[in-house]
Amino acid sequence: MQEELPGGYAGKILRVDLSQNRTWTEAWTAEMCRTCIGGVGLGIKILWDEVPAEVSWDHEDNRLVLATGPLAGLPAWGTGGLTVVTRGALTNGATNTQANGFFGANLKYSGYDAIVLQGRAPEWVYLYIHDDTVELRDASALLGKDTWETQETLEQMLDLTGHQLSVYTSGLAGENQVRFAAIHGDYGHVASKNGCGAVMGNKRLKAVAIVRGSKALRAADPRGLWMAAQEIAEDLQYDPSTRSLYEYGTLPGVSGLSRLGALPIKNYTTNVVPEGVDMSQWTAQGLREGFDHRGHQCNSCGMHHCHAQVLPSGPHQGAIVDEPEYEGWSGAGWAFGCTDPVATSWLNTQVDRACVDVNEFGWLMGWVVECQEKGYVTKEQLGGLTITWGDAEAANALLQMIIRREGFGDVLAEGVKRASETVGGPAAECAIYAMTGNTPRGHDHRARWEEMLDTCTGSGGTLDSGPPVLPTEMGQPARINPFDPDAVARMVGGTRGRRQFEDSLGTCIFTTRTLLSILCRTLSAATGWDFTKDEALLFGRRTAALMRAFNIRCGITPDLERPSKRYGSVPVDGPAQGQDIGAHWEHLLDVWYDMVGYDRQTGKPLPATLEDLGLSHILADLWDAREATHAGT
Amino acid sequence: MKVLRITPQRCTGCMRCEIACSYEQSGVFQPAKSVIRISPFEAHTSYAPYTCTQCDEAWCMVACPVNAITISPVGAKIILNDLCVGCKLCTIACPYGTMFYDPDTAKATKCNLCGGAPACATACPTQAIEYVEAESADWLGSFAAERAETQLAQQA
Amino acid sequence: MARTRHVIVGGGTAGMNAISTIRRYDRGASEIILVADERPYSRMVLPYYLKGSISESHVFTAPPTRLRTLDVEPFIGRRAVGVDTQINTLMLDDGTELPYDNLLIATGSSAVRAPVAGADGSGVHSFWTLEQAQGVIRGITPGCSVVLVGAGFIAFTILNSILALNAQLTVVEIAPQILPRMIDATGADVVTRWLQERGVTVRTGVQLNAIEDADGRKRLRFRQGEDVMADQVIMATGIRTNLDWLEGSDITINRGIVVDAHMRSNVPNVYAAGDVAEGRDAVTGEAALHAIEPTAMEHGRIAGANMAGQSQTYRGSLLMNIVEVLGLEIASFGAWDDADAEVMSALRPERPAYRKLLWHDDRITGAMILGPARDIWATNDVGILKGLVQSGVSLRDWKSYLRGNLFDVKRAFIAAGATGRLLPQTVLGRPSVAAESVAVQ
Predict the structure, then answer these.
(1) Which residue in A27, A34, A32 sits closest to A10, CA to CA?
(2) Domain C5-108+242-317: which topology?
(3) What pLDDT digit, counting tens, does each position of C386-407 carry?
(4) Which of A53, A106, A316, C76 has a CA positioned 20 to 30 A from the CA of residue C86?
(5) Taking CB atoms and an 8 Å cutoff, what residues of chain B touch C379?
(6) C411 contacts chain B (CB < 8 A)
(7) How far apart are the first and last CA of chain A?
(8) The CATH number of domain B1-51+115-156 is 3.30.70
C-alpha cells in the first residue's frame, strides 16, 4: 500500500527517457517530501544522485528537472511556479532558475510534482501531458518556431485556448543550443539562467505542453491555507516594503536604481542618464500608463506585476507584447544604451520569443556596440551590420543571427564571456560576466556589492541569496551601508538559504516577500507539517550546500569566484563613482566563507557544516578522510 | 436580487476564482470542478470569468425531467443532488453553456452562488467578480467584441 | 359560476407541465382532471432505473401527494378511447364520460417492434414504458448476451445501463449507420469505433429477418450475414404517436395533431402537446413532430398557460438530443442535417472529437458535437452551441475565424453578444418558478 503523502503534493514524479521514448512515474515518500520539499530541493538531489562529474551539460545523461512544489496549484498568490534544475551550459554546473505562469498549477492538476528528463530524442519531440496521458510526440511542425509561435501552434493543434494549455519551450535558441538559451512559457515567463534552454535543445525536446489537468489537490488544513494565503496577500498589499511591488511589479526599478548608480548604462561605461532622456517616461507609472496594458497574471496571483501591453507607436505599433520586467528594461534597453521605452518593450519580447536570457543578451549587445564603436569588432565581422548605442532594430537583427548561429552570431551564441575570449585583445576586457560563467542580473553591481558577491559565489547560475527579504527575521540588520565590505558579506552569507526555500515551494519570489514564519504556516497548512522558520533555513542552507558540492564535483573551484575585468571595474561617474569593490574582494570572500561554513581554499562545505545541515552522507564523496580532519582548522 | 457582476477589464486571468469555486464545490482544489470559467478574449491576453447568470427562464430548471433543480433563497438555481439522475438534459437546455456535468458523481453541477457568499467573488484579487444588488446583464459581450478585434485582425 | 374544467389526457412531460402551468396561473381556481394509463413517471430516467442507480420510487413524477397539492383529480390506469368535440366530452375505456371546458391531448408515443417473426416471443423486449423497463431488468443477468435491435437515440440511452449490468452487447441497425436521426455518418463512425474499442459489437446495414428460439436462447437471423445468438433481445426499432383513439374525431391530424402557436388544434378548446403535437420548429419555422422531452415540456407549458386564459405565443421548439455512451458525449441541435446549409466541420479522431456547424449566411442553424464527457474544457460548448442556434445571433465577424477554430466557439458566442440576446428570452414571458413552489392556495 502506498503511504499517505503530505497534503499539497500531487504525489508523483514524472520520468521521461527521451532516448528510449519511455515515460514512467515515481512515487514520493513522505520523508522525501519533507527533506526535498520540491523545486530546487528536489532538483539538486536528483542532480547529485544522477549526474556524475563526467556527464557534462551536453551529455545525454544530463538531467533536466522541471519541478514545481507543494504550494503550486493552491490558492496562495503566484502558485504556478516552475523551477528548472540541470547542469547548465554557461557554467557546466548546477542551475537553479525559475519561471512562473501556469506550469506548476497545470502540471499538478495533471497529477505530477515534477518532470525529470534524461536522454536525447532521436528526432525532435514535444512532451504532451494531460492527466494520465503522457506522450512524446513528433515536433516537426514546431521546428523553427519561436516561443510564442510554438505555443500558438500547439494551441491550434490541440484546440485549447488560454490557460487550458501551458507550453514551455526553448524556442529557436534552444534548437540551436545557444549557450544562454532560456526556457519560456505562457507568453512572458522565462526560466532564463545558465543556458537551461540549451540543455532542452540538446535533448531534442522542443516543448513541454501541459493541459490544465483535471485532478484534485488536497490541503491538510484547507481553511488554514486560505487564511494563510489571505495573510500573505494582505502583507504584500499593505506592507510599505512590498506595496510598490504589488502595484507595479519591478517597474520602479529603472528610476530607483538610476538614482543609486545601479542602473547599468551602455555596458557599464557610464552611470549617468544621457542628456535628453525623459525620465518621467521611466517611472513605474510612466511605464505602466504609457501603454495600453492588461493584467497577465500567473496562477492565483493578485499582484499587479505581470502585464501585457500594446505598443502605442513606432514601427510595431499595435503589437501585443509582454510588459518587460525591470530586467527587460535593463537588458533589452539601458545595458546597450536604448532609452526608448517602446523600442525596449518590443525588443524585450523579441528576446523572449527568441528565448535567450535577457541579462546575458544585454551584456552581449552592450559589448558588441562598444566593440564596434571602438573598432574591436568590425562591420564586416557582423555581416555588414552596424549597431550603435540603443538601436533596437539592429539588436534584433543580431539576435536573429545568434539564435540561428549565422555568421558572427555563432560566436555571440556562446555568450559574452566566450565571445569576448574568442575575439580577444582589448575586446576581452569590455565584457561583463562572472568568471564561473554566471550571468550578472540587470543591475550595475558596482553599486550593488551584495549582488556581485552573490553572483560570483553563486552555485546555481545566478544569485544564490538574492536581495535580502526581511533580513531581521534571520538575525541580520534591516539595512547596511552598501559599500561596507564586512556588512555586505555578512548580509549575503547570513541570508543564505531563504531563497532556496522559496525556490522549492512552487511559488514566485515576488509573492514570498513576506515573513518566513507566514510562509512556513502556509506550507504547514498545505502539508500538515509543523514547519518552522528554523527548519526552512536549515533546508535552504542544506540545498545550497548540496548545490555547491555538486559544482565542486563538476570542477568549479573558488579561483573562479571573481568578476570579469569590466564587471569588477570602478564606476567613472554617477552616484557610485569611485567605489572600488576589487580592492575589497578577498576580504568579502573571507567573511562570506566564514559566514556560510565553507572551506576558503577548496570551496567545499566544511565537514562540520555538512553535519549540521544533515548532509553527512555526502561527506565521503567530497572529502577524503585525511583532508577532512584538517579542513577548516 | 444580488448577482455576480463581472467587470472584465479588471480580470487578469489568474484563475483564482476557479480554484476557490472548486474548493467550495468539492472541498479540494480542482479547477476541473469549477463552475466559473476563465476564457481569453484577445490572443493569449484579456481574460474574463464566465458563469451562470441565474437567468429568468432557468432553462435548466424547467428542462429537468425530475424537478431536481430549484431556486434557492438567494435566487440561485440549484441542483438537488439526491434527485439528479445525470441525464444531461439541462446541459443541452441551457443556452449559455453554464451547466456542467461531473463525470465522477454522474450528476449535473452549476453555480449556486455558494448560498449567498460566492467564493469566486471573495477570492478574486482584483474585484473583477463582485456579488452585488443588480440586474443580470451581458457583462462580457462588448468587452469581448472589442478585445477580439486584435485577434480577428491577425487571423484575417 | 362553475369552475372551468380542464381535462388532461396523458401524464407524461407535456401533461404534467401543462398542469403545473395552469396552477401557476390560477392557483386552484379551475378543476383539473388527469387521465393517464400509467402512474405518471419520467421516461428520461428509466435508463438509470434499469442500471440500478436510482430506485423505482424515484421514477414517478406525480405521486398522490403531488396531485393533491395541485388539486388534480386523477383517473390513473384509464385510457381515453374517444372524444366528441361537439359536446365537449371525453370517453374513457371503462365507459366513463368526462365533460370538459378545455381538453389537452398529450398521449405521447409507443414503441413499435420491427415486423419480424418472433418479435413478440419471450425474451424479446421493448424499452419504452416503465413496465417494459422492469421486464428488461428481470431478463438481464451478468454475463448474458444482449442484442439491441435498433441503434437510434432510445437504444443509446439504455446502452450504458445494459453494459453496467455486465451484459455482452451487440447492436444491430438496419440503416447504414448508427444514430441515423441524430448525427451524420462521420460522427457515427467515431461513435462506432468508440463502442467497438469498449467491447460492443456493432453491425449496421443489416435487416433482421426473424428471431427464433434455440435451446433456451434466441437466434437472430438477418437478410445479410451471420446469425447472432442472444439471451435477451431488446427492440428499439422506433416509436409512433398514440393517436389511434382520435380516429373519427373532428381534430385535424397530419403527422401529428396540427396546432397553432397557442398549441390549439383546429378545435379551439382542444389543445395538443408533446409527441402527438405537430408544432412550429423554431429553426425552420415549419410544422414538425419532434418527439423529444424538451419540446414536450415547452408544449405543455404553453398549452397550460393558454388553457388558463393567458395568451402565450410559442416561438417554436428547437430540435436537440444528447446522449452519453461509455463516456462519449453526443449531441446535435436544430437543423443538423440540412442539405442546403453551409457546413463547417472538424474531426479529431485521436481524442476523439467531432464538431459540425451548419450555417445560413452568418447564423448557425444546426450543430453537432461529439467528444469525451471527461473533456471538461469542452462541456460548456454543448450549451453554447444550443445558444448559438437558439439565439440566432449574427456571427459575421467570427465566421472565418470559426472555420479554422471550430473548437473555440465560446469566445465567438460571448463576443457576438449572444448572452444579451438570450437574457430577455423566456418561454412564458415571465421568470420561471420552481416546480414545488406551484400549489393551490
Answers:
(1) A27
(2) FAD/NAD(P)-binding domain (3.50.50)
(3) 999 999 999 999 999 999 999 9
(4) C76
(5) 91, 100-101
(6) yes
(7) 49
(8) yes
Could you tell me the three cell numbers for A313?
507607436
Work out whether the CA dihedral C95, C101, C104, C105 comes out positive or negative: positive
Contact status, residue C155 vs residue C236, Cβ threshold 8 Å: yes
Which residues on C lie below 8 Å from A214 (Cβ)? 374, 376
Instruction: Inform me whether the pLDDT recorded for C197 exceeds 70.
Output: yes
The architecture that CATH gives domain A448-513+532-630 is Orthogonal Bundle (1.10)
Q: Assign domain B53-110 to a CATH class.
A: alpha beta
Give the three-class secondary structure for A622: helix
Query: What's the rounded mean pLDDT across residues C170-187?
Result: 96
Nearest-CA distance B129 → chain C (Å): 17
Stretch C41-48: mean pLDDT, rounded? 90
A166 contact residues in B (CB cutoff 8 A): none
Tell if the CB–CB gap between B16 and A301 is shorter than 8 Å.
yes
Amino acid letter for position C398: W
Question: Which residue intervals of chain A bear CATH 1.10.599.10?
Answer: 448-513+532-630
- Residues ≥6 apart with Cβ < 8 Å to A143: A124, A175, A206
Q: Kindly state the cell numbers that stand for A245.
A: 511591488
Q: What is the pLDDT of residues C58-73, one digit of tens each?
A: 899 888 999 999 999 9
pLDDT lower than 50: segments of chain A: 1
CA-CA distances (angstroms) from residue A313 to A148, A325, C159, C377? 22, 20, 61, 37
Contact C299, C248 (CB under 8 A): no
Q: Tell me, yes or no, if A161 comes closer than 8 A to chain C by beta carbon.
A: yes
Chain A nearest-CA residue for C410: A161
Return the CATH class of domain C124-238. alpha beta
Query: In chain A, where does the domain assigned CATH 3.60.9.10 lie?
Result: 12-211
Residues of B in contact with A109 (CB under 8 A): 30-32
- Superfamily of the domain at C327-422: FAD/NAD-linked reductase, C-terminal dimerisation domain (3.30.390.30)
What are the cell numbers at C6?
380542464
Return the pLDDT at C401: 92
Please tell me the distance in Å from A619's CA to the nearest CA on chain B.
Answer: 41
**Per CATH, which fold does A12-211 belong to?**
Aldehyde Ferredoxin Oxidoreductase;  A, domain 1 (3.60.9)
Do the Cβ atoms of A161 and C411 come within 8 Å?
A: yes
**Do the Cβ atoms of C348 and A160 come within 8 Å?**
no
Contact C206, C181 (CB under 8 A): no
Give pLDDT tens digits along chain B (156 positions): 999 999 999 999 999 999 999 999 999 999 999 999 999 998 888 999 999 999 999 999 999 999 999 999 999 999 999 999 999 999 999 999 999 999 889 999 999 999 999 999 999 999 999 999 999 999 999 999 999 887 776 665
A159 at the C interface (CB within 8 A)?
yes
- Which chains does chain C touch, 3 or more C-beta pairs < 8 A? A, B
Best interface-test mutation with A: which of B11, B14, B25 has the largest number of A CBs within 10 A? B14
A111 touches chain B (CB under 8 A): no
The reported pLDDT for the residue numbered A631 is 66
For A78-113, what is each residue's pLDDT tens digit?
999 999 999 999 999 999 999 999 999 999 999 999
- Kindly list the partner chains of chain A, i.e. chains with 3 or more CB atom pairs below 8 Å: B, C
DSSP string over C358-379:
EEETTEEEEEEEEEETT-GGGH
Which residues from A are below 8 Å from B23, CB to CB? 75, 222, 226
- Beta strands C270-272 and C277-280 are unpaired
pLDDT for res A1: 44
Predicted confidence band at C113 (pLDDT cuts at 50, 70, 90)? confident
Question: How is chain B split into domains, by residue range?
Answer: 1-51+115-156, 53-110
Best of A155, A159, A215 to substitute, by most chain C Cβ atoms within 10 angstroms, is A159
Residue ranges of chain C assigned to CATH 3.50.50.60? 5-108+242-317, 124-238
Whether residues B65 and C382 touch (CB distance < 8 A) is answered with no
Calpha distance A41→C152 (Å, rounded) = 57
